[in-house]
Amino acid sequence: MHQQEDGKPRPFCLQWTFAGANSPARIQLVVWLRNFRDMENTILVTGGAGFIGSNFILQRMERASDAIVNLDKLTYAGNLHNLESIANDRRYEFVHADIADRALLRGLLERREPRAIVHFAAESHVDRSIREPDDFIRTNVDGTFALLEEVRAYWNGLAKPHRADFRFLHVSTDEVYGSLGSADLAFSETTAYAPNSPYAASKAASDHFVRAYHHTYGLPVLTTNCSNNYGRFQFPEKLIPLMILNARDGNPLPVYGDGQNVRDWLFVEDHCEAIATVLARGRVGQTYNIGGWNEKRNIDIVETICDIVDEIAGLRGAPCRSLITFVKDRPGHDRRYAMDASKIERELGWRPLETFETGIRKTVSWYLEHEEWVRDVTSGSYRQWIETHYSS
Questions:
Q1: SS3 call for 330
Q2: What are 20-52's pLDDT values in tens digits?
Q3: Residue 44 forms beta bridges with which residues?
Q4: Segment (H or E) for 169
Q5: Using 50, 70 and 90 to split pLDDT, how confident is the model at 314?
Q6: Mapping DSSP to helix (H, G, I), strand (E, B) and coil, where does residue 15 land?
Q7: Which of 28, 36, 32 is nearest to 12 (CA)?
Q8: Which of 16, 121, 137, 289 could be a cystine partner for 47, CB 3.0 to 4.6 Å?
Q9: Each residue's pLDDT tens digit, 271-286
Q10: Average of per-residue pLDDT across 66-90
């Protein structure tokens, strides 16, 4: 790594030397080039140690030549173990920081000169937002505002060609649209916002700020709203990993209410590919819904997991389905989410590769095969939290 005295990376100096036959005279041609941190190649990812963010970084590092700067506060769901395989890759840098730290953001943008921001950083669990909404306002609203302000100042200072190429991609959720009845059409990009939880409201607010910064200041933004993700590295407070691990251990499988709530399920690696597609080819100022075309009732998800765990783990005793326990419903529990993801398919040619059947089998197998990862994230405080939220 070439650095100046102030710690900033300096350009490489390529030197060609030509010596005359009868003379020590030298002609030097010096070409100053940016090092690998060039704006053309650097993406700043916020929340990159979380579930979706870490999957996105790993996929990007494998498939593209980008340098990645991962800025993450490392709250309870952030896990750098997810990224151990690239920790020593010279294209990757981790920065432990809060997106609300504007001075740090300013310095980081100046130092690394990213050509894009992919903004994952968010508090994302509905149950936590019901009990502790303050953190959701602080990160999802105030943090996004701080990031937008610093990015706007940075973008305004770029040379004209770089301003035109820059992108700010904001990752959001289908929960901003509210709840659907059983016969209602799926959410589209023009569905009116109707958030029903503090989490959904905080994400809706951040979506509106991103939109406003495009329409008011011209910031070249893109927004994606995704359905429920599942896959490796998901913190086991969420439905699918919680059910996998409880089934494995023979513990009760708590299902809210009557289990008839419907969600659309999206394999996380498909989601990451969709984000990369929107970043590369999406129309500035537009929103793209990303869904898996997999509407499933919660009880169907749990029963499917039970059957796969029984098959793979070969547990003795009663089938895992016997562990299903219905518990008091979540306050304000939305009945159905469904995503119309036809726009991203029509405009950008993206469609998920995994069916739910193939994706859930891969996911169950991953959790059963990665005991050390599970043990590291399921601390005593985690077990206490589960007991508080899922008691009968």
A1: coil
A2: 444 443 333 232 333 334 455 899 999 999 999
A3: 69, 117
A4: strand 167-173
A5: confident
A6: strand
A7: 32
A8: 121
A9: 999 999 999 999 999 9
A10: 94
Q: Which two tokens stand for residue 64?
A: 């593209």
Active site residues: 174-175, 199
**What average pLDDT does range 184-212 have in this prediction?**
98
Q: What distance lies between CA 193 and its chain's CA centroid?
A: 21
Tokens of 15: 């030197």
pLDDT in tens, 115-161: 999 999 999 889 899 999 999 999 999 999 999 999 999 999 999 99
In CATH terms, the fold of domain 42-233+267-298+334-359 is: Rossmann fold (3.40.50)
Q: Tokens 């990862």 label which residue?
A: 373
Q: How many CA atoms lie within 13 A of 319 on its CB side?
A: 9
DSSP code per residue over 120-142:
------HHHHHH-THHHIIIIII
Q: 307: which 2 tokens?
A: 């059957």
Structure-block tokens of residue 68: 């990645």
Strand partners, 16: 29
What are the Cα distances from residue 42, in Å, to 103, 256, 312, 345?
A: 20, 43, 41, 27
**Alpha-carbon gap, residue 88 to 94, rounded angstroms:** 10
Assign 13 a pLDDT band (cuts: 50, 70, 90).
Answer: very low
CB 350 within 8 A of CB 274: yes
Q: Which of 307, 313, 301 is nearest to 356 (CA)?
A: 301
